[in-house]
Design goal:
This protein has five helices and two strands, in the order αβαααβα. It is mainly α. It starts with a helix and ends with a helix.
């Protein structure tokens, strides 16, 4: 008669052997989010908006900087004929404008990061929804972001399919 221990070991071995067979049927997909941002129509539009907003902020800061440089040149020319009080007043005005420009630059830097983050979050949400739909529809067990993967063959990369789906949904 077979002992209970031997039966239990045999049952466990059968169970453990069954798991790799089941896992072999699972589909795995990899998505490159940076590629989605770069090549999808929504990603391109977001990049364009980000560039436009950054240029606008940069132009405003350049105007402030040019204004300060102009005041410095004017002070340099007029300083020899100005009274000490008038010169001190002009220097103080320039320092105030410099501090204001630095504060504006800091504000714009924060605003720009928030703006960029908001646009990317919107795209991320859309992409996650599409990935979930693709996963369910095409029978994927797992879809992961490429930055979390050390190696994956090209055959599991579904980024192009995701971009096509995303572009078609955005065009509707």
């Amino acid at each position: 008669m077979i002992s209970m221990k031997t039966t239990l070991v045999a049952a466990m071995m059968c169970l453990l052997m069954a798991f790799p067979v089941y896992a072999a049927d699972g589909k795995i997909g990899v998505v490159d989010f940076q590629k989605v941002l770069a090549l999808s129509s929504a990603g391109k539009a977001a990049k364009e908006q980000i560039t436009k907003e950054g240029k606008k902020m940069e132009d405003e800061l350049k105007v402030k900087g040019d204004e300060i440089e102009e005041l410095k040149k004017k002070l340099e020319k007029e300083a020899p004929v100005m009274s000490k009080e008038a010169r001190d007043e002009k220097e103080r005005d320039i320092r105030i404008k410099i501090v204001d420009a630095q504060a504006l630059q800091k504000k714009y830097s924060g605003d720009f990061k928030n703006f960029e983050g908001k646009l990317i979050k919107e795209i991320q949400k859309d992409v996650f929804d599409i990935v979930e739909d693709l996963g369910k529809k095409d029978g994927y067990q797992l879809i992961i972001e490429k930055t979390a993967v050390m190696y994956a063959p090209e055959s599991v990369d579904i980024t192009d399919k995701l971009i096509q789906t995303y572009n078609s949904k955005k065009s509707k």
